[in-house]
Task: structure prediction
Amino acid sequence: MPVHKSGAFLQQCFSVHPLCLTVKLVSPPHTVGVLCTNCRMRHRLTLPLAPVAKEANTEITSHELCLLQGCVQNHPNDVRVSLVHIERSAVEFRCGACQRTYELEVALFETHQS
Result:
């Protein structure tokens, strides 16, 4: 099973069939897993590691990831990928039930093909 370390595959899935992207895993503080039900690709997003010194930005990112995890656990069918920013290394998620948007910086994009 090949693993591609590029955000291009996630961006392609989002461009062609965005409603087929389902958030399957949110594992704070570093990992988000997205499944494309159309092409059966599994996208793993690894967030940047938090630096040793506490910074406001780091706390916001981990807090946002915990909130996203709550949405995925409480109403998984309402959480969608709403935007993919490969140039900025960021992915945006939207929860329809909470009307919240989560933009997360991504350090590593990985795509696993079945």
About this structure: The two ends are 6 Å apart (CA to CA). Strands lie at 3-4, 21-27, 31-36, 42-46, 79-85, 90-95, 100-105, 108-112. The helical segments are 8-16, 56-74. The longest helix spans residues 56-74.
